[in-house]
Amino acid sequence: MKRRILCASALSIAAANLIPLRRVLAEVTADHDLAAVRTDGKSVTLRSAEIRELSSSLPGGVLLAGQNGYDDARRLWNGAFDRHPALIARCTTAEDVVHAINFARSHSLLTAVRGGGHSVSGQSSCDGGLMIDLSPMKAIHVDAARRTARVEPGVLLGDMDRATQASGLATTAGTVTHTGVAGLTLGGGIGRLARKLGLACDNLRSVEIVTADGKQLRASSRENPDLFWGVRGGGGNFGIVTAFEFQLHPIGPKVYAGTMLFPYAQAREILGALVEFAERAPDEMYLTAFVGRMPDGLAVGFESCYCGAPDAGERLIAPLRRLGKPALDALSAQPYVQVQASTDGLFPPGRGYYIKSGFVSSVDPKLIDEIVGRFEGAPPWVNNVLLIHAGGAMGRRKPDATAFWNRHALHDLAVWASWDKSSESSRDVVAVRGFWQALEPYTRGYYVNTDIPDDEKRLRETYGDNYPRLVQLKNKYDPTNLFRLNANIRPST
Protein backbone atom coordinates (compact mmCIF):
# COMPACT_ATOMS: atom_id res chain seq x y z
CA MET A 1 0.00 0.00 0.00
CA LYS A 2 1.41 3.31 -1.02
CA ARG A 3 2.36 5.45 1.96
CA ARG A 4 0.79 8.84 2.05
CA ILE A 5 1.61 11.57 4.52
CA LEU A 6 -0.63 14.60 4.83
CA CYS A 7 0.81 17.59 6.61
CA ALA A 8 -1.49 20.33 7.82
CA SER A 9 0.93 22.88 9.24
CA ALA A 10 0.22 25.94 7.11
CA LEU A 11 -1.08 27.81 10.13
CA SER A 12 2.18 27.19 11.98
CA ILE A 13 4.15 28.55 9.02
CA ALA A 14 1.92 31.60 8.78
CA ALA A 15 2.29 32.27 12.51
CA ALA A 16 6.06 32.09 12.17
CA ASN A 17 5.96 35.19 9.96
CA LEU A 18 4.81 37.18 12.99
CA ILE A 19 7.47 35.81 15.32
CA PRO A 20 10.14 38.52 14.87
CA LEU A 21 7.64 41.28 15.67
CA ARG A 22 6.42 39.47 18.78
CA ARG A 23 9.98 38.95 19.99
CA VAL A 24 10.86 42.61 19.52
CA LEU A 25 7.72 43.70 21.37
CA ALA A 26 8.46 41.30 24.23
CA GLU A 27 11.99 42.65 24.56
CA VAL A 28 10.78 46.24 24.48
CA THR A 29 8.15 45.75 27.19
CA ALA A 30 10.31 43.53 29.44
CA ASP A 31 12.40 46.50 30.56
CA HIS A 32 11.22 46.41 34.18
CA ASP A 33 10.76 43.86 36.92
CA LEU A 34 7.42 42.06 37.06
CA ALA A 35 5.34 40.88 40.02
CA ALA A 36 4.00 37.35 39.66
CA VAL A 37 2.28 34.68 41.75
CA ARG A 38 3.92 31.48 42.98
CA THR A 39 2.31 28.08 43.40
CA ASP A 40 1.87 28.78 47.14
CA GLY A 41 -0.03 32.00 46.38
CA LYS A 42 2.80 34.28 47.52
CA SER A 43 4.26 37.02 45.36
CA VAL A 44 7.55 36.75 43.52
CA THR A 45 9.48 39.37 41.54
CA LEU A 46 10.64 38.35 38.08
CA ARG A 47 13.68 40.35 36.98
CA SER A 48 13.50 42.02 33.59
CA ALA A 49 16.72 40.34 32.52
CA GLU A 50 15.24 36.91 33.29
CA ILE A 51 12.13 37.68 31.26
CA ARG A 52 14.21 38.88 28.33
CA GLU A 53 16.32 35.73 28.53
CA LEU A 54 13.19 33.54 28.41
CA SER A 55 11.80 35.56 25.52
CA SER A 56 15.01 35.27 23.52
CA SER A 57 14.93 31.49 23.93
CA LEU A 58 11.42 31.24 22.45
CA PRO A 59 10.88 31.96 18.72
CA GLY A 60 7.29 32.88 19.63
CA GLY A 61 8.46 35.23 22.37
CA VAL A 62 6.84 36.20 25.66
CA LEU A 63 3.69 38.31 25.88
CA LEU A 64 3.11 40.73 28.75
CA ALA A 65 0.03 42.72 29.77
CA GLY A 66 -0.53 45.72 27.52
CA GLN A 67 1.38 44.18 24.66
CA ASN A 68 -0.20 43.60 21.29
CA GLY A 69 -1.52 40.01 21.18
CA TYR A 70 -1.64 39.50 24.96
CA ASP A 71 -5.42 39.73 25.28
CA ASP A 72 -6.03 37.39 22.35
CA ALA A 73 -3.61 34.84 23.78
CA ARG A 74 -5.06 34.86 27.31
CA ARG A 75 -8.72 34.75 26.18
CA LEU A 76 -10.46 31.41 26.69
CA TRP A 77 -13.48 29.80 25.06
CA ASN A 78 -15.38 29.99 28.37
CA GLY A 79 -16.17 33.67 28.84
CA ALA A 80 -16.95 33.06 32.52
CA PHE A 81 -13.20 33.43 33.13
CA ASP A 82 -11.29 36.65 32.50
CA ARG A 83 -7.83 35.81 33.80
CA HIS A 84 -4.62 37.78 33.42
CA PRO A 85 -1.34 35.85 33.55
CA ALA A 86 1.76 37.84 34.48
CA LEU A 87 3.37 36.52 31.29
CA ILE A 88 2.53 34.19 28.42
CA ALA A 89 5.19 31.93 26.90
CA ARG A 90 4.35 31.24 23.24
CA CYS A 91 5.71 27.80 22.38
CA THR A 92 6.30 26.53 18.84
CA THR A 93 8.43 23.44 19.59
CA ALA A 94 9.04 20.92 22.35
CA GLU A 95 12.29 22.72 23.13
CA ASP A 96 10.28 25.90 23.78
CA VAL A 97 8.15 23.96 26.25
CA VAL A 98 11.32 22.81 28.03
CA HIS A 99 12.47 26.44 28.42
CA ALA A 100 9.05 27.53 29.70
CA ILE A 101 8.81 24.70 32.23
CA ASN A 102 12.34 25.31 33.49
CA PHE A 103 11.49 28.99 33.98
CA ALA A 104 8.26 28.12 35.82
CA ARG A 105 9.99 25.59 38.05
CA SER A 106 12.96 27.82 38.91
CA HIS A 107 10.59 30.55 40.13
CA SER A 108 7.89 28.21 41.55
CA LEU A 109 5.38 30.04 39.35
CA LEU A 110 1.68 29.30 39.28
CA THR A 111 1.50 27.65 35.86
CA ALA A 112 -1.38 27.16 33.44
CA VAL A 113 -1.13 25.19 30.19
CA ARG A 114 -3.21 26.25 27.21
CA GLY A 115 -3.75 23.96 24.24
CA GLY A 116 -7.06 24.69 22.55
CA GLY A 117 -8.16 27.03 25.35
CA HIS A 118 -11.46 25.13 25.66
CA SER A 119 -11.19 24.30 29.37
CA VAL A 120 -14.70 24.43 30.83
CA SER A 121 -13.16 25.05 34.26
CA GLY A 122 -11.03 27.94 33.01
CA GLN A 123 -7.79 26.33 34.15
CA SER A 124 -6.07 26.94 30.81
CA SER A 125 -5.20 30.35 32.21
CA CYS A 126 -4.42 31.89 35.60
CA ASP A 127 -4.17 35.23 37.37
CA GLY A 128 -0.64 36.44 38.00
CA GLY A 129 1.18 33.29 36.95
CA LEU A 130 2.70 31.90 33.77
CA MET A 131 0.56 30.66 30.89
CA ILE A 132 2.41 28.18 28.69
CA ASP A 133 0.64 28.69 25.38
CA LEU A 134 0.77 25.72 23.02
CA SER A 135 -1.73 27.10 20.51
CA PRO A 136 0.98 27.83 17.86
CA MET A 137 1.83 24.11 17.76
CA LYS A 138 -0.67 23.03 15.09
CA ALA A 139 1.10 20.45 12.94
CA ILE A 140 -0.79 17.31 11.86
CA HIS A 141 0.86 14.43 10.02
CA VAL A 142 -1.37 11.63 8.76
CA ASP A 143 0.21 8.36 7.63
CA ALA A 144 -2.57 6.69 5.69
CA ALA A 145 -0.60 3.49 5.13
CA ARG A 146 0.01 2.92 8.84
CA ARG A 147 -3.33 4.48 9.79
CA THR A 148 -1.74 6.82 12.30
CA ALA A 149 -1.72 10.55 12.96
CA ARG A 150 0.84 12.64 14.81
CA VAL A 151 -0.91 15.67 16.26
CA GLU A 152 0.57 18.64 18.13
CA PRO A 153 -1.16 20.09 21.22
CA GLY A 154 -2.46 23.30 19.65
CA VAL A 155 -4.62 21.39 17.15
CA LEU A 156 -8.41 21.63 17.38
CA LEU A 157 -10.70 18.65 16.78
CA GLY A 158 -12.10 20.02 13.53
CA ASP A 159 -8.61 20.36 12.06
CA MET A 160 -7.75 16.78 13.00
CA ASP A 161 -11.04 15.40 11.64
CA ARG A 162 -10.58 17.14 8.30
CA ALA A 163 -6.99 15.94 7.99
CA THR A 164 -7.78 12.30 8.80
CA GLN A 165 -11.00 12.18 6.77
CA ALA A 166 -9.03 13.23 3.70
CA SER A 167 -7.76 9.62 3.84
CA GLY A 168 -11.12 8.14 4.85
CA LEU A 169 -9.90 7.69 8.43
CA ALA A 170 -10.79 8.99 11.89
CA THR A 171 -10.24 8.45 15.58
CA THR A 172 -12.47 9.26 18.51
CA ALA A 173 -12.80 13.00 19.07
CA GLY A 174 -15.27 15.14 21.00
CA THR A 175 -18.51 16.68 19.77
CA VAL A 176 -17.53 20.34 19.29
CA THR A 177 -14.88 21.06 16.65
CA HIS A 178 -13.26 24.02 18.41
CA THR A 179 -12.28 21.80 21.35
CA GLY A 180 -8.54 21.18 21.73
CA VAL A 181 -7.21 17.69 20.99
CA ALA A 182 -4.79 17.78 23.93
CA GLY A 183 -7.15 18.44 26.81
CA LEU A 184 -9.83 16.17 25.40
CA THR A 185 -7.46 13.22 25.05
CA LEU A 186 -5.66 13.62 28.38
CA GLY A 187 -9.00 13.61 30.21
CA GLY A 188 -10.19 10.47 28.40
CA GLY A 189 -12.03 11.72 25.34
CA ILE A 190 -15.70 10.81 24.95
CA GLY A 191 -17.13 11.37 21.46
CA ARG A 192 -19.42 10.12 18.75
CA LEU A 193 -17.07 7.23 17.88
CA ALA A 194 -16.19 6.15 21.44
CA ARG A 195 -18.69 3.30 21.58
CA LYS A 196 -17.18 1.82 18.41
CA LEU A 197 -13.49 2.73 18.79
CA GLY A 198 -13.05 3.42 22.50
CA LEU A 199 -12.09 6.70 24.10
CA ALA A 200 -9.66 9.12 22.45
CA CYS A 201 -7.03 8.02 24.99
CA ASP A 202 -7.69 4.35 24.11
CA ASN A 203 -6.53 5.15 20.59
CA LEU A 204 -3.21 6.63 21.66
CA ARG A 205 -0.12 4.77 20.46
CA SER A 206 2.37 7.09 22.12
CA VAL A 207 2.99 10.61 23.37
CA GLU A 208 5.96 12.95 23.47
CA ILE A 209 5.96 14.75 26.80
CA VAL A 210 8.00 17.22 28.84
CA THR A 211 7.85 16.51 32.57
CA ALA A 212 8.17 18.97 35.45
CA ASP A 213 11.96 18.53 35.61
CA GLY A 214 12.25 19.68 31.97
CA LYS A 215 13.01 16.24 30.55
CA GLN A 216 11.68 15.26 27.11
CA LEU A 217 10.33 11.73 27.18
CA ARG A 218 8.45 9.42 24.88
CA ALA A 219 5.78 7.29 26.52
CA SER A 220 4.13 4.24 25.00
CA SER A 221 3.37 0.65 25.94
CA ARG A 222 7.13 -0.03 25.63
CA GLU A 223 8.76 3.24 26.72
CA ASN A 224 7.93 4.70 30.12
CA PRO A 225 4.75 2.58 30.27
CA ASP A 226 3.84 3.90 33.72
CA LEU A 227 3.67 7.45 32.37
CA PHE A 228 1.77 6.28 29.29
CA TRP A 229 -0.79 4.67 31.59
CA GLY A 230 -1.19 7.92 33.54
CA VAL A 231 -1.66 10.34 30.65
CA ARG A 232 -4.55 8.23 29.35
CA GLY A 233 -7.23 9.78 31.54
CA GLY A 234 -5.06 11.36 34.23
CA GLY A 235 -5.19 14.80 32.62
CA GLY A 236 -2.26 17.20 32.59
CA ASN A 237 -0.98 16.13 36.00
CA PHE A 238 2.33 14.67 34.85
CA GLY A 239 3.72 17.00 32.21
CA ILE A 240 3.01 18.80 28.95
CA VAL A 241 2.38 16.56 25.95
CA THR A 242 3.98 18.05 22.85
CA ALA A 243 2.77 15.38 20.38
CA PHE A 244 0.11 12.67 20.30
CA GLU A 245 0.25 9.63 18.05
CA PHE A 246 -3.22 8.21 17.36
CA GLN A 247 -4.39 4.99 15.80
CA LEU A 248 -6.83 5.75 12.96
CA HIS A 249 -9.72 3.68 11.62
CA PRO A 250 -11.81 3.65 8.42
CA ILE A 251 -14.87 5.85 9.02
CA GLY A 252 -17.36 7.40 6.61
CA PRO A 253 -17.12 9.48 4.60
CA LYS A 254 -20.85 9.51 5.40
CA VAL A 255 -22.61 8.46 8.59
CA TYR A 256 -26.29 8.46 9.53
CA ALA A 257 -26.74 11.22 12.06
CA GLY A 258 -28.72 14.20 13.25
CA THR A 259 -31.27 15.39 15.78
CA MET A 260 -34.89 14.54 16.51
CA LEU A 261 -37.13 16.60 18.81
CA PHE A 262 -40.50 15.82 20.43
CA PRO A 263 -42.93 17.96 22.47
CA TYR A 264 -41.90 18.34 26.10
CA ALA A 265 -45.25 16.94 27.24
CA GLN A 266 -43.88 13.52 26.22
CA ALA A 267 -40.60 14.00 28.06
CA ARG A 268 -40.89 11.12 30.55
CA GLU A 269 -42.08 8.64 27.95
CA ILE A 270 -39.50 9.70 25.36
CA LEU A 271 -36.54 9.72 27.76
CA GLY A 272 -37.48 6.26 29.05
CA ALA A 273 -37.68 4.89 25.51
CA LEU A 274 -34.39 6.52 24.48
CA VAL A 275 -32.56 5.12 27.51
CA GLU A 276 -33.89 1.63 26.72
CA PHE A 277 -32.87 2.00 23.06
CA ALA A 278 -29.38 3.23 24.00
CA GLU A 279 -28.73 0.36 26.38
CA ARG A 280 -29.28 -2.27 23.67
CA ALA A 281 -27.86 -0.33 20.71
CA PRO A 282 -24.89 -1.75 18.76
CA ASP A 283 -21.46 -0.17 19.18
CA GLU A 284 -21.83 1.79 15.94
CA MET A 285 -24.71 3.78 17.46
CA TYR A 286 -24.08 6.83 19.62
CA LEU A 287 -27.27 8.43 20.97
CA THR A 288 -27.46 11.24 23.50
CA ALA A 289 -30.90 11.89 24.99
CA PHE A 290 -31.67 15.35 26.33
CA VAL A 291 -34.20 17.85 27.50
CA GLY A 292 -33.42 21.28 26.11
CA ARG A 293 -34.49 24.88 25.80
CA MET A 294 -35.39 25.76 22.21
CA PRO A 295 -36.36 29.16 20.74
CA ASP A 296 -40.05 28.23 20.91
CA GLY A 297 -39.99 26.45 24.27
CA LEU A 298 -38.85 23.24 25.96
CA ALA A 299 -38.34 20.01 24.04
CA VAL A 300 -37.13 16.46 24.55
CA GLY A 301 -35.12 14.57 21.97
CA PHE A 302 -31.84 13.02 20.97
CA GLU A 303 -28.71 13.60 18.91
CA SER A 304 -27.27 10.50 17.28
CA CYS A 305 -24.53 9.23 15.00
CA TYR A 306 -24.40 5.76 13.47
CA CYS A 307 -20.86 5.24 12.14
CA GLY A 308 -21.60 2.08 10.14
CA ALA A 309 -23.39 1.90 6.79
CA PRO A 310 -25.89 4.80 6.65
CA ASP A 311 -28.78 2.62 5.44
CA ALA A 312 -28.30 0.32 8.44
CA GLY A 313 -28.40 3.35 10.72
CA GLU A 314 -31.64 4.54 9.16
CA ARG A 315 -33.26 1.14 9.75
CA LEU A 316 -32.04 1.07 13.34
CA ILE A 317 -33.46 4.53 14.12
CA ALA A 318 -36.84 3.81 12.47
CA PRO A 319 -38.63 2.67 15.69
CA LEU A 320 -37.79 5.97 17.37
CA ARG A 321 -39.76 7.84 14.74
CA ARG A 322 -42.85 5.99 15.98
CA LEU A 323 -42.55 7.29 19.53
CA GLY A 324 -44.69 10.25 18.56
CA LYS A 325 -44.96 13.02 16.02
CA PRO A 326 -41.51 14.64 15.93
CA ALA A 327 -41.35 18.41 16.15
CA LEU A 328 -38.08 18.09 14.23
CA ASP A 329 -36.57 15.22 12.29
CA ALA A 330 -33.14 16.22 11.00
CA LEU A 331 -31.64 12.74 10.62
CA SER A 332 -29.93 11.89 7.36
CA ALA A 333 -26.77 10.47 5.78
CA GLN A 334 -24.16 13.23 6.15
CA PRO A 335 -20.39 13.61 5.87
CA TYR A 336 -18.75 12.78 9.18
CA VAL A 337 -16.92 16.13 9.33
CA GLN A 338 -20.28 17.89 8.93
CA VAL A 339 -21.77 15.91 11.79
CA GLN A 340 -18.79 16.74 13.99
CA ALA A 341 -19.47 20.46 13.46
CA SER A 342 -23.24 20.20 13.85
CA THR A 343 -23.40 21.40 17.48
CA ASP A 344 -20.70 24.09 17.27
CA GLY A 345 -23.29 26.86 17.09
CA LEU A 346 -24.71 25.88 20.48
CA PHE A 347 -21.40 26.61 22.20
CA PRO A 348 -19.97 29.83 20.77
CA PRO A 349 -16.75 31.20 22.29
CA GLY A 350 -17.05 34.09 24.70
CA ARG A 351 -20.26 33.12 26.46
CA GLY A 352 -20.11 32.10 30.10
CA TYR A 353 -20.54 28.36 30.71
CA TYR A 354 -20.96 26.19 33.76
CA ILE A 355 -21.42 22.42 33.83
CA LYS A 356 -22.04 19.79 36.45
CA SER A 357 -21.72 16.16 35.43
CA GLY A 358 -21.46 12.62 36.71
CA PHE A 359 -21.34 9.05 35.43
CA VAL A 360 -24.47 6.90 35.55
CA SER A 361 -24.29 3.10 35.39
CA SER A 362 -28.07 2.65 35.06
CA VAL A 363 -30.96 5.07 34.69
CA ASP A 364 -33.49 4.81 37.50
CA PRO A 365 -37.02 5.96 36.55
CA LYS A 366 -36.79 8.30 39.53
CA LEU A 367 -33.84 10.00 37.84
CA ILE A 368 -35.97 10.65 34.76
CA ASP A 369 -38.68 12.12 36.98
CA GLU A 370 -36.13 14.41 38.63
CA ILE A 371 -34.73 15.57 35.29
CA VAL A 372 -38.11 16.30 33.71
CA GLY A 373 -39.73 17.90 36.74
CA ARG A 374 -36.81 20.11 37.69
CA PHE A 375 -35.97 21.23 34.16
CA GLU A 376 -39.52 22.41 33.60
CA GLY A 377 -39.11 24.91 36.45
CA ALA A 378 -35.43 25.69 35.89
CA PRO A 379 -34.25 29.26 35.24
CA PRO A 380 -33.76 30.17 31.56
CA TRP A 381 -29.96 30.06 31.70
CA VAL A 382 -30.05 26.29 32.37
CA ASN A 383 -29.88 25.22 28.71
CA ASN A 384 -30.20 21.45 28.82
CA VAL A 385 -29.73 18.20 30.68
CA LEU A 386 -28.04 15.43 28.71
CA LEU A 387 -27.62 11.70 29.06
CA ILE A 388 -24.48 11.32 26.93
CA HIS A 389 -24.11 7.84 25.49
CA ALA A 390 -21.21 5.76 26.84
CA GLY A 391 -20.64 2.00 27.08
CA GLY A 392 -19.76 -0.12 24.05
CA ALA A 393 -16.04 -0.42 23.33
CA MET A 394 -15.11 2.20 25.93
CA GLY A 395 -16.84 0.11 28.58
CA ARG A 396 -15.18 -3.19 27.74
CA ARG A 397 -11.69 -2.15 28.81
CA LYS A 398 -10.75 -2.96 32.37
CA PRO A 399 -10.90 0.05 34.72
CA ASP A 400 -7.20 -0.28 35.52
CA ALA A 401 -6.09 -0.61 31.87
CA THR A 402 -5.66 3.19 31.78
CA ALA A 403 -6.04 5.97 34.32
CA PHE A 404 -9.63 6.47 33.11
CA TRP A 405 -11.50 4.46 35.74
CA ASN A 406 -15.20 4.90 34.95
CA ARG A 407 -15.58 2.14 32.38
CA HIS A 408 -18.84 0.97 33.99
CA ALA A 409 -20.77 4.05 32.91
CA LEU A 410 -23.58 3.79 30.39
CA HIS A 411 -24.19 7.54 30.38
CA ASP A 412 -22.50 10.77 31.36
CA LEU A 413 -25.21 12.91 32.95
CA ALA A 414 -24.54 16.62 32.41
CA VAL A 415 -26.33 19.88 33.23
CA TRP A 416 -25.31 22.80 31.00
CA ALA A 417 -25.87 26.49 31.66
CA SER A 418 -24.70 29.56 29.75
CA TRP A 419 -25.10 33.32 29.86
CA ASP A 420 -24.00 36.46 28.05
CA LYS A 421 -23.16 38.92 30.83
CA SER A 422 -20.29 38.30 33.22
CA SER A 423 -22.33 39.92 36.02
CA GLU A 424 -24.73 36.98 35.83
CA SER A 425 -22.14 34.27 36.41
CA SER A 426 -22.39 33.97 40.20
CA ARG A 427 -26.17 33.76 40.10
CA ASP A 428 -26.13 31.14 37.35
CA VAL A 429 -23.49 28.96 39.02
CA VAL A 430 -25.52 28.89 42.25
CA ALA A 431 -28.64 27.88 40.29
CA VAL A 432 -26.89 25.00 38.52
CA ARG A 433 -25.40 23.72 41.76
CA GLY A 434 -28.85 23.72 43.31
CA PHE A 435 -30.27 21.88 40.29
CA TRP A 436 -27.43 19.35 40.44
CA GLN A 437 -27.93 18.48 44.11
CA ALA A 438 -31.01 16.44 43.25
CA LEU A 439 -29.25 14.54 40.43
CA GLU A 440 -25.82 13.88 41.95
CA PRO A 441 -26.95 10.94 44.16
CA TYR A 442 -27.64 8.96 40.97
CA THR A 443 -24.02 9.39 39.81
CA ARG A 444 -20.58 8.19 40.80
CA GLY A 445 -17.47 10.00 39.64
CA TYR A 446 -17.39 12.58 36.87
CA TYR A 447 -15.79 13.34 33.51
CA VAL A 448 -12.79 15.56 34.22
CA ASN A 449 -13.17 17.39 30.89
CA THR A 450 -16.57 18.82 31.81
CA ASP A 451 -16.43 19.33 35.55
CA ILE A 452 -14.06 20.03 38.41
CA PRO A 453 -14.18 18.38 41.83
CA ASP A 454 -16.07 20.12 44.59
CA ASP A 455 -14.14 18.05 47.11
CA GLU A 456 -11.54 15.33 47.42
CA LYS A 457 -14.24 12.67 47.76
CA ARG A 458 -15.56 13.25 44.24
CA LEU A 459 -12.05 13.21 42.79
CA ARG A 460 -11.30 9.87 44.44
CA GLU A 461 -14.60 8.45 43.15
CA THR A 462 -13.61 9.60 39.68
CA TYR A 463 -10.30 7.71 39.71
CA GLY A 464 -11.49 4.87 41.94
CA ASP A 465 -8.91 2.18 42.66
CA ASN A 466 -6.52 3.90 40.22
CA TYR A 467 -6.07 6.86 42.56
CA PRO A 468 -3.15 5.49 44.66
CA ARG A 469 -1.27 4.59 41.49
CA LEU A 470 -1.82 8.11 40.15
CA VAL A 471 -0.41 9.58 43.35
CA GLN A 472 2.72 7.43 42.93
CA LEU A 473 3.11 8.77 39.37
CA LYS A 474 2.66 12.32 40.62
CA ASN A 475 5.37 11.75 43.22
CA LYS A 476 7.69 10.50 40.48
CA TYR A 477 7.05 13.01 37.68
CA ASP A 478 5.77 16.16 39.43
CA PRO A 479 6.61 15.98 43.14
CA THR A 480 6.21 19.75 43.68
CA ASN A 481 2.80 19.83 41.96
CA LEU A 482 3.84 22.36 39.33
CA PHE A 483 1.00 21.11 37.13
CA ARG A 484 -1.87 21.71 39.53
CA LEU A 485 -4.42 23.60 37.43
CA ASN A 486 -6.42 20.52 36.48
CA ALA A 487 -8.36 17.75 38.22
CA ASN A 488 -5.39 17.69 40.49
CA ILE A 489 -3.71 14.58 41.82
CA ARG A 490 -1.75 15.89 44.77
CA PRO A 491 1.66 14.39 45.47
CA SER A 492 2.20 12.79 48.85
CA THR A 493 5.86 13.83 49.05
Descriptive notes:
The structure is a single chain. The longest helix has 13 residues. With 493 residues, the protein is α+β, with helices and mostly antiparallel strands. The relative contact order is 0.12. The protein has 16 helices and 22 strands. It folds into three domains: 124 residues, 2-Layer Sandwich (Uridine Diphospho-n-acetylenolpyruvylglucosamine Reductase, domain 2); 113 residues, Uridine Diphospho-n-acetylenolpyruvylglucosamine Reductase, domain 3 (2-Layer Sandwich), CATH 3.30.465; 203 residues, Vanillyl-alcohol Oxidase, Chain A, domain 3, CATH 3.40.462.
| Major sheet characteristics | 8 strands, antiparallel
Helix content: 25-40%
How far apart lie the N and C ends? Answer: 51 Å
| Corresponding CATH architecture of the largest domain | 3-Layer(aba) Sandwich
How many runs of DSSP E, i.e. beta strands?
22
Morphology: globular
Judged by helices, strands and strand pairing, the structural class is: alpha+beta
Number of domains: 3
Q: Would you state the CATH class of the largest domain?
A: Alpha Beta
Provide a quick synopsis of the model.
The protein has 16 helices and 22 strands. With 493 residues, it is an alpha+beta fold.
